[in-house]
Structure formats: C-alpha cells, structure tokens
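Section: Multi-chain targets

For targets with more than one molecule, the full set of components is provided together so that the structure can be written out for the assembly as a whole rather than chain by chain. Components appear in the order listed by the source. The example entry contains two components.
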Amino acid sequence: MTNVPIAALADPTRRRLFDRLRRRPYAVGELARALGVSQPAVSQHLAVLRRARLVRSRADGARRLYQPDPAGIAALREYVDRMWDDVLTAYAQSFEEPSA
Amino acid sequence: MTAAHTRSFTPIVKQVTIRATPEEAFRRFTSELASWWPLRSHSVGQAEAETVVMEGRVGGRIVEYIRGGQEAVWGTITAWDPPRRVAFTWHPGRAPETAQDVELVFTAAGARTSVRLTHRGFERLGALGKKARRGYPIGWSYVLGLYTRRRGPFMLLMGGLTALILAFRRDTRSEATA
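Its structure, encoded as tokens over all components, is:
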C-alpha cells in the first residue's frame, strides 16, 4: 500500500511544499525560501513528488516551475476504487464460509 | 484536463452479487460489520484497531475502537431502511467537514442478493477547498492534521485524497480563469 502516490505526502515537509504548489506554480529557489528548507532538500522532495506523479514541472525561461500534476488525482480515485473492491470482496467472501 | 477532472469527481459505483437473502446481506454489512471488514488494512488504527461498530439508526455512527481506548468515527448513518438501503457519510481519519456519501442498496436476485455501493461527493471537497481559500477555518493543515496523529496508510490515503482534490480543484479553477 505504500507504493501508492499519496504515500509521498506522508512527509510533513512534502505536505507543506505541496500546499504551496496548490496556490501557484513555484521555482525551487522560491520554495526553499518560503519553507525555510535548503534548496537541495527541496529538489529532493520535488523528485519524490514527481515520481509519485503528484507534481509536474515546466520550463519558464531559464527556470523551472513546479505545480500539481492532474495525473495524480486519477491515481487516487483509483485507490478509493480499489479500497471498495477489497472491502466488497471480503464482504462477499464472508458468505462463502459456513462458519462466518 | 477538464475531462480528466470530471471523471475524477464522478461517483464510484460497485456491484457485487452474494449468496444470501437481502436480510442477511443487510445484517452482515451493518450489525455484523466487524466480522468481515478488513480492519488490518482498512482502518485508522491498523494493527491496533480492535473492532468497528455501525450504530443501526439514522444519526448512528460508524465507530472504530482502537487499543488504548481511542475511537475513530468513520461516518454517520443518514438512511436506515433495512433490508433495502443504508447510507452514511464517510470521513475515516478526516475532518467531518470533508465527508463524502456512501450508499448501499440491497436487491433480491433470485436466491441471491445484488448489492450496489455508490461513493459520491468528491466534488464537495472542491467546494470545501473554496471555503478554505476564503478564510474559513477549514484549511489544508486542519484537514491533514487529523491524520498526521496516526500514520496508517489508510488514513494517509484518505486524508491525502482530500488534500489532492482540494489542490486539483484549485488548479482547475485557476486555469479556467487564466
């Protein structure tokens, strides 16, 4: 279950970072200043979020801007979908066992 | 992107046919919830979850009891019509303000029962995000803060889902007005 996208938001710094990005696109340097975190640390967190498809980047002149990636939400809705699959499977199976 | 978002906010609908009467099916999902719900993987307390109880009446709660005396309310019953229908709000590990709606409808199908589950209200989270932006005290931190106390993946996922819906709702809106 930990390889699902949202697990990337388990880290408090990444949540703060993501919170910023939902307001407007940010460059790495701006994010580092806004959060009081070093630039390499911010880059590392952004890499995790990008791998989870929660954040995407685009070039803006010489710099790169980061923003939420809409691909992530589809994956999350899929998670809820799978959760109900798991739950309803357990529910249906409870009728197959005589002792249930 | 708009099409993808529209899909993201549509209700989730599931259907399963079980070997039981509607009465048995209804009872199993409600008063016997703890006998089959996968608590280890789908609960707030995870390994420490002891049981879950659905209080069978409108206004009753779905409560998970966690070792050490903690309780986690997953939702509140909004419709109680045995053996045909039960509906409840759904906010496990989240602020009640972020609740979505789940409905189960039980229909006899010969000797079996067809059970249809509908999970809706994703778009309401978007409206909540709008409120938060206007300065209501229901912000991102508040929503997320509730699940940071416990680190179970179920809670992370549910809380994170809320957060992301808020985020992408915002994203859509700002692109629409750009």
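DSSP finds five helices and seven strands in chain B.
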